Amino acid sequence: MKKLVLICTVAFMFIANGAVAKNTLRLLTWKGYAPAKLVKDFEAETGIDVKITYSNNEEMIAKLRATRGGGFDLAQPSQDRISFVQAKFPVYQPIDFSRVNTGQLTASMVEAVKKNSAYDGKAYAVPFCYGTTGMIVNQKMAPDAKDWSDLWNPKYAGKISYRLKRPLLIATAFGLGENPFALYNDINAYRALMKRVEKTLIDGKKLVKNYWTSGDTQVAIIKSGDAWVISGWDGKGWSLHATNPDIDFIAPKSGALGWIDTFAIPAKSKNLDAAYKWINFMLSPKNAAYFTNKEGYGTASADAIKYLNEDIKANFSRSFPPEVLDNIKWHPPVPEGFETIEAKVLDRIKAAK
Amino acid sequence: MKKRSGTFYLLLVPVLLWLVMLIVVPHLDMFFRSFRFETDEGAMIFSLNNYLAFFEDQIYWLTFVKTALYSIGVTFLAFVVTFPVAFYLTKVIAKKYSSFMVLLLLIPIWIGELVTIYGWMILLSDNGVINNFLINIGLIDTYLPMLYNNFSMTIGLLYMSMLFMIVPMMSALESLDDSLIEAASDLGASKWTIFYRIVIPYTTPGIASGGIIVFMLVIGDYVAPNILGGKSSLWFTEQIYNKFLATFNWNEGAAFGFLLLMLSSTIIWIALKLTGQKLEKVGS
Lengths: 353, 284
Description:
The structure holds 2 protein chains of 2 kinds. Chain A is of the alpha/beta class.
């Protein structure tokens, strides 16, 4: 009996391990970040199978934490969610920049990501794409919605929607005329600011149609006319603009929130070769341009601009004239413990009447 | 004791492996985790703080009470809505049609919950199918807000769980001898008397087991409240999810998970006592 259990256990483990063939790349990423055409090209070029798991920032951390950095060969967290995670749960490994073709990347962005993802003197991420959180507005119905504060403007009662996550709290703080990022070294001042943010959003709750929860629900709620003024990502807003010119992305007056999504390598990545190959492949100018043309988000690939469609270039110049571009508030790395404060605030807003 | 053959053990092994590795071990892990607490100095200590957090912050237990009340309500609604259907399928309609109708009932379950819920969104939204229809036939002038509120959430939960109520009730009703109903009506009992003196007592075990399944499904659901529920519909499962995923506090999340298990088990226990049912009987 004992022997049999042992044999079965060993066999079970063997199967579990064997299921991951040597030549696959297990990618943990966002929807849209691995377009089917590019995956096919990559597989044909390298003979490596790509297995994709779609996720978001929070789930990525939880998934990698559960396996202590195993199960995936490459992940794509946002740059501000790496160093504090690494400090608490060592789920990533440092990037070997000699294997990354940095020549094809925008140098300033590489430097910024290196600095922001650093832990213990080592850099943990390579930039992949960037974008902003701003507002998507139906300009026919709400021509005057220009700033974050319009998310609690009674003029648009019943036609407002946003995603109840931490970027919204930050956006609300900016809408109140504060700079939350400046308080990242003063947890008590930040807590006080979040209290005001909480009050603003609870008072404004009766004006909100609904909180959108995913990229799809974000598109659905404004497309269907259920909402006119919503928080949203630039790429999504621009793709809506292409089908309905009334709807467009707007960088709020007090500043759109900039994010950079990256490549980071889990601590127990089994196929480092494939991971670095994928990074270099996705950031080559033509492939990066394909991604941007399709999804609308900006890329870290320096020469991709040569291959961008005219309408994609027009999006950037329409929504981000130079002075607006300079006003983008880039997410700095989140200090430890801040997410706990924010999560409580979010809970209380959601539970409020 | 009877000597078991090798085959018996061979077949037992996968079951045991499944139970131990995928159910017992993770639960034990979560159970121990729920008592671990990180102090301000970063040390891990044994503590009840994770459980206390639930009672200290009223938002948690208020959410739980709301979740529990809604789950009880949905379970009751599921009974009200599906009992006539179950009765019709077992007692009124001919056997050959009824199996086809049961198949029709099963079809929505083949489709994932998420897809079904997006379907409801199309129906219920401001410019959706139902509103458009009502406006076109002139019954209303402006749209009715049907989506993103407690109404749409209840519909979603009800739709998802109805089938699990019908099936146990049907099996109870099938074994009810029609001659009992005939005899009662020959003796002059009204339809209502037959219903609550004969049919209901006879099917109570089926109702109770259906009710338990529906209640557990609804109280532990995440998708329907999250997508259909709108801005105020914080469900207890969502708070557990947030503990794990937004604040990375797995210890507190584990404690909340166990609280959900204990509290929902208690509610079921009370319900069984009140209706005079025994779990063994209901489970069979």
